[in-house]
Amino acid sequence: EVQLVESGGDLVQPGGSLRLSCAASGFSFSSYWMHWVRQAPGKGLVWLSRINSDGSSTYYADSVKGRFTISRDNAKNTLYLHMNSLRAEDTAVYYCARVNVWHCGGDCYNDYWGQGTLVTVSS
Amino acid sequence: EIVLTQSPGTLSLSPGERATLSCRASQSVSSSFLAWYQQNPGQAPRLLIYDASSRATGIPDRFSGSGSGTDFTLTITRLEPEDFAIYHCQQYGNTPWTFGQGTKVEIK
Predict the structure, then answer these.
(1) Chain A residues with CB inside 8 Å of B90's CB?
(2) What gap in Å lies between CA A99 and CA A32, rounded to an integer?
(3) Are B19 and B7 in contact (CB under 8 A)?
(4) Residue A117 and residue A108: Cα distance in Å, rounded?
(5) Within its chain, how far is the Cα of B24 from the centroid?
(6) Which of A68, A80, A84, A117 has CB atoms 3.0–4.6 Å from A6's, for a disulfide?
(7) Which of B33, B96, B99 shows the shortest C-beta gap to A44?
(8) What are the φ/ψ torsions at residue B32 (nearest 5 degrees)?
C-alpha cells in the first residue's frame, strides 16, 4: 500500500525556518517525481515545488522561489521541504504528493497524497 | 500561468441528485491534462479523474469527466452521502501546475 506521511509542521515566528519531511513507503520511491502542495485555511490547493526522481531537477512556484528548497534522500525514502524566511501567508497545511510520471512520461497528475502537516507562522 | 476557475462555488443538492461541476481554464490545457480531486474536511485530496475523462483506480462509475481545451466538467450522476465534499480541478499540461479554487458540494 502506498503511504506518504508528512511531519515537521510547527508554530514558527515570521522570518523563521522549518524543515518538513515526507516518509514514503509501499512503492519504489526513487522511481517517482514528487510535489509539495499547500492549502491555507479555508482556501484552495496551491502547488509549490517539484523534484525529479534522482533529485537533479527541481522547480518552484514564484511565491516560494529563493525561500524554499525541495530535496530528497532516496536511501531513506524521504522527501524534504526546507523553508526559510517564513511569512504569515505561508501558514497552511503542507502536503507531499506523488507524481504519476510513468503515465505522462514526465510532469503529471498526483495519484497519491499524504495527510498533510500544519505550518503556522505567527508571532 | 493557466488560471482555473471553478463554478459554482457551492452546489446544494440532495442525495440521489445529479451534480455538474465546471472548471474553465484561462488558456487551452495541453493534451487535456486535467485532473479532478475530491477532498473531505481534514483529509488529503483523492484522485478521481485524470486526462480529463479517465477514472482513477477504484473510483465508482457515477463519477465522470469530460471536456477539452478550456472547458471541463465533472459529473456525479447520483449523489451518495459520501460524495458531499470539496472538488478541485488541476491542470498538469503546463508549468506551473495550477488548481481551481474548489467547488463545495453540500447537502441541501
Answers:
(1) 45, 47, 109-110
(2) 6
(3) no
(4) 23
(5) 11
(6) A117
(7) B99
(8) 55, 40
* A73/B57 Cα distance (integer angstroms): 29
Integer-rounded Cα Rg, in Å, for chain A is: 14
Cell of B75: 459529473
Which residues on adjacent β-strands are paired with residue B73?
A: B22, B66
C-alpha cell at A44: 484552495
Cell numbers for A65: 522561489
Contact B50 A103 (CB under 8 A): yes
Q: For residue range A1-50, what is the model confidence (pLDDT) as tens digits?
A: 999 999 999 999 999 999 999 999 999 999 999 999 999 999 999 999 99
Q: Where residue B29 falls among pLDDT bands split at 50, 70, 90?
A: very high
pLDDT at A31: 94
